[in-house]
Write a structure and sequence with these properties.
The protein is an alpha/beta fold. The protein is built from 19 helices and 16 strands. Helix 3 runs antiparallel to helix 4 and helix 4 crosses helix 12. The structure holds CIS-heme D hydroxychlorin gamma-spirolactone 17R, 18S. Keywords: Heme, Hydrogen peroxide, Iron, Metal-binding, Oxidoreductase, Peroxidase.
Length: 706
């Protein structure tokens, strides 16, 4: 029996009831422990006199069990680790805010999407999927893009990926898929990658994976930065407005700086040179004040149009081409604060696609339906019980009072006799809230469902290849080349010839004969027969090519100024200023940390090699240039930058380094000039760097060793 509905504003309690926009900050502030001025104490509050020596029987005698200080410290240490996430174990996160550009009232009653003046705190965690917590950032993998919106009506988690589709159509296949992609059981190899037998065995037997595997073989799987990576909610959700009208919705995140990827050679090298490459990039950008920004876009489909497509909106292996349903940009998220403590915030953050608020609802996507079970379940073992919502990073900014009680690690101290409802002992509180009221209670969208209980995949999920063809056809030539190279790399690492052949003949040949033939040739296989799959729908969607996602300018690009003692310090200062003026991050890199006149290099060439930069300028000045030309590291630096299609400038005597590295005399994206302070060279360089890569140099770069 339901109690009397509460039409008042939700009850407010002391733990997390703040209603202001910095509610989350304040909430976290209450839990911040600052050691300044504090005495060292035990967990029971006893001041510690000696933190260096165990209590022992005599200076050379055995340690005593009695030492409660040592025992407490070591016991706590012994339990410092919690289970890492089964998937998405490797990640980093940041705080920020979200604001809608204009009211979305027409489409949804979600409070945080009503008013451009409302600033909603967010916490966003980016991740890889396959590797453990300590694995490298730049592996070929899907990236998680999980956002927790701390709205005034409770938490809304948009737990998405950087690709708009998924490998499987039904949640029951998820453990199989994850077992296949994770390091193999006998030897726990490989770490962080999918280039191994079990992954390709599984996906070659599961044609529904064709589309997503193609995405993971594309440049999307090796992003340049979390800051320049798109995000997608993947599933079709629902928006529901105050009148109860529902529409289908797909969520997208679009980075304001545009989207860019690494090259595979770069990604592999970075995995060794800086396994924290993405983590560091995000952290440093926020510390610098270059706050990452992402626009939220939605594709909205009227209920009446549900069956208008060549695919099923409930099928998570399909995207809605933007040319069919344009993206409506509705707001912006800005990440503006790094966490204080990785474990307390990022590791303990518990995302869940089932965390939704009034105005947003689910669909029957069978993958989403399974996720709705999985995410709470996994937190119970990862975070040690069902009270993980009380961990500061997970707490909503509004009240969360109910009659749930007890369980491991309970923080709230519930006051009063009644922990049930209805009750009279507490005047019936806490009470339900009428959905029709202002700040109404959550009311599930009423969808008519009447059918046979059945274990079956809908026929409307049967087309596995049309959208793979759509994606491949939408790629530019360099992107197509990268895809072929990625299949070759990965399948080349598969030890069982029959698995390689199956992927080529049963999967690739069904969506693109040219790609299949190219990969077959590389693998030494006979050219496959044309696939039998019938391909339907649009042939291409230009919005899918990353080359169409380049935004002009060099804002936040990392640019190496290569110099040595004797380089032209005045020119360096002028370059630093000019590049900073464009919003870029110039860094002075030299063979050693010895000063260049009054300038201190930021790092050595060996410490920050070319793969850590977007572009490079070799500074002028006879003596410095001579030292660079004689340095193997410096020659390698420019060779690699050339090979990785980065913009290069060489000023004055700095040109000698290009000659010493035996780079071609003329090349696209290489600006040179006699003068060590040339405005024209700088302009040409900035133009080239703004393109991110000099694709027209690709053929020339192929012959350059690096
Ligand atoms: Fe997840 N997924 N997933 N997933 N997922 C987890 O939850 C799961 C799926 C995604 O930064 C786990 O807290 C199932 C799709 C992200 O903390 C786990 C299925 C998409 C993150 C889990 C899927 C995702 C996770 C592991 C198929 C994109 C990291 C730890 C039915 C839309 C969130 C955890 C973070 C994490 C289960 C499929 C995205 C085990 C059963 C599709 C971004 O609960």
């Amino acid at each position: 029996m339901a109690g009397k509905a509460n039409t008042q504003k939700p009850a407010v309690h002391e733990n997390g009831a703040a209603q202001s926009n910095d509610a989350k900050s304040n909430d976290l502030e209450r839990n911040r422990v600052k050691p300044q001025g504090e005495a060292l104490r035990t967990n029971q509050g006893v001041k510690i006199a000696d933190n260096q020596n165990t209590l022992r029987a005599g200076p050379r005698g055995p340690s005593l069990l009695e030492d409660f200080i040592m025992r407490e410290k070591i016991t706590h240490f012994d339990h410092e680790r919690i289970p890492e996430r089964i998937v998405h174990a490797r990640g980093s996160a940041a705080h920020g805010v979200f604001k809608v550009y204009e009211s979305m009232r027409e489409y949804t009653k979600a409070a945080f999407l009503q008013d451009p003046a409302t600033e909603t705190p967010v916490y966003v965690r980016f991740s890889t999927v396959q590797g453990p917590r300590g694995s490298a950032d730049t592996v070929r993998d899907v990236r998680g893009f999980a956002t927790k919106f701390y709205t005034q009506e409770g938490n809304f988690d948009l737990v998405g990926n950087n690709m708009p589709v998924f490998f499987i159509q039904d949640a029951i296949k998820f453990p199989d898929f994850v077992h296949a992609v994770k390091p193999e059981a006998p030897n726990e190899m490989p770490t962080g990658g999918s280039a191994h037998d079990t992954f390709w065995d599984f996906v070659s037997l599961v044609p529904e994976s064709a589309h997503m595997v193609l995405w993971t073989m594309s440049d999307r799987a090796i992003p340049r930065s979390f800051r320049t990576m798109e995000g997608f909610g993947v599933h079709t959700f629902r928006f529901v407005n105050a009148e109860g009208k529902a529409r289908f919705v797909k969520f997208h995140w679009r980075p304001v700086l545009g989207s860019y990827s690494l090259l595979w050679d770069e990604a592999q090298k970075l995995a060794g040179k800086d396994p924290d490459f993405h983590r560091r990039d995000l952290w440093e950008a926020i510390e610098r004040g270059d706050y990452p920004e992402y626009e939220l876009g939605v594709q909205i489909v009227e209920e009446a149009d549900e069956h208008k497509f060549d695919f099923d909106l409930l099928d998570p292996t399909k995207l809605i081409p933007e040319e069919l349903v344009p993206l409506k940009i509705i707001g912006k998220m800005t990440l503006n604060r790094n966490p204080d403590n990785f474990f307390a915030e990022t590791e303990q953050a518990a995302f869940h696609p089932g965390h939704i608020v009034p105005g947003i609802d689910f669909t029957n996507d069978p993958l989403l339906q399974g996720r709705l079970f999985s995410y709470t379940d996994t937190q119970i073992s990862r975070l040690g019980g069902p009270n993980f919502h009380e961990i500061p990073i997970n707490r909503p900014v509004c009240a969360s009072v109910n009659n749930q009680r007890d369980a491991m690690h309970r923080q709230a101290i519930h006051v009063g006799q009644a922990s049930y409802e209805p009750n009279s002992l507490n005047d019936g509180w806490p009470k339900e809230t009428d959905p029709a009221a202002e700040d109404g209670g959550f009311d599930s969208y009423q969808e008519r469902v009447e059918s046979t209980k059945i274990r079956v995949r809908s026929d409307s999920f049967a087309d596995h290849f049309s959208q793979a063809a759509l994606f491949y056809n939408s790629m530019s030539q360099p992107e197509k080349d990268h895809i072929a190279a990625a299949y070759l790399f990965e399948l080349g690492k598969v030890t069982k010839p029959e698995i390689r052949a199956r992927q080529v003949n049963e999967i690739l040949a069904n969506f693109d004969a040219g790609l299949a033939a190219k990969v077959a040739e590389g693998l030494g296989l006979p050219a496959p027969k044309q696939g039998t799959a019938r391909l339907v729908g649009p042939k291409a969607s230009p919005a899918l090519s990353l080359l169409n996602r380049v935004k002009p300018g060099i804002k936040t690009r990392k640019i190496a100024l290569l110099a040595a003692p004797g380089s032209d310090a005045a020119a360096i200062k002028q370059l630093q200023e000019a590049l900073k003026g464009e919003g870029a991050t110039p860094m002075l890199i030299a063979p050693t940390l010895a000063g260049i006149d009054d300038l201190a290099p930021d790092a050595t060439i060996a410490g920050l090699p070319s793969v850590m930069f977007d572009a490079v300028i070799v500074v002028g000045g006879e003596k410095g240039a001579k030292a660079l030309a004689q340095s193997g590291d410096a020659r390698h630096f420019v060779l690699e930058a050339f090979k990785h299609l980065k913009a290069i400038a060489a000023l004055g005597a700095g040109r000698d380094l290009l000659t010493a590295a035996q780079l071609p005399a003329q090349s696209d994206g290489v600006a040179t000039g006699e003068d060590s302070q040339s405005a024209d060279v700088l302009k040409a360089f900035i133009n080239a760097a703004g393109q991110h890569r000099v694709w027209s140099r690709a053929a020339q770069a192929e012959s350059v060793p690096a």
